[in-house]
Amino acid sequence: DETEFRNFIVWLEDQKIRHYKIEDRGNLRNIHSDDWPKSFEKYMKDVNCPFKMQERQETVDWLLGLAVRLEYGDNADKYKDSTPDGAKNTDNTAKNAEPLINLDVNNPDFKAGVMALANLLQIQRHDDYLVMLKAIRILVQERLTQDAIAKASQTKEGLPVALEKHILGFDTGDAVLNEAAQILRLLHIEELRELQTKINEAIVAVQAIIADPKTDHRLGKVGR
Question: Per its UniProt record, what InterPro entries does this chain match (predicted)?
Fold first, then answer.
């Protein structure tokens, strides 16, 4: 209410802001006077408050900010190394949210968990559990992420390949192995073509940045 508001302004001036000398605070302290609004308006001008007297919420917020700033200035050494309670709680929450920070790789539970994941994902066992964990990570990144699943679900249309038309260049002595080798060679050729395409795209992108005179690869012309 009005009385509490006036008492609050007087307390701020007396205890924190202290813009007036003690002997000059009489009009502001006289909260029951009919002239108090005029005294308060003058006080706002004297402390350079940018708000009007009618804007009480904004005025209170600004005066509190001024009080905090002055309080800090008077006790900078006391407050400069302080950490807000909210920040402390945030740090503790972050630490609790990172259980892998203090992970013990020799813990039997850790080893059992890695082994269970490897069995589930059909990954070859290894004596080093960290190696198995790395293999699990690679598999998850390449096969089980949302992007990988979406990419795998896309149907690719292709033409049937007649293996007998592709010469292997050597003979293993086993028809099944020969066929497998032909398939691997064709897959390797496909990967090389994809790599070459990416290399060409990279070259074009670099040329677009550094070419002078500018090169328009689409037109096969050089010019500005």
Answer: RTRAF
What six digits make up the tokens of 84?
């807000």
Helix (H, G, I), strand (E, B) or coil at 64: helix
Residue 221's SS3 state is strand
Q: What share of the chain is helix, strand, coil (3-state, %, to 5)?
A: 65, 0, 35
- The whole-angstrom distance between residue 156's C-alpha and the CA centroid of its chain comes to 35
Token output for 181 = 């080798």
- Enter the pTM of the model: 0.38
What gap in Å lies between CA 147 and CA 109, rounded to an integer?
31
Q: Which pLDDT score, from 0 to 100, does residue 53 have?
A: 84
Sign for the CA dihedral angle at 61, 67, 68, 73 comes to: positive
**Residues belonging to the chain:** 224
Amino acid type, 168 = L
Pairing of strands 215-216, 221-222: antiparallel
Ranges of the chain whose pLDDT falls below 50: none
Q: 199 and 208 in contact (C-beta within 8 Å)?
A: no
| Residues 208, 157: Cα–Cα separation, whole Å | 33
Whole-angstrom CA distances from 51 to 44, 60, 96 are 8, 10, 45
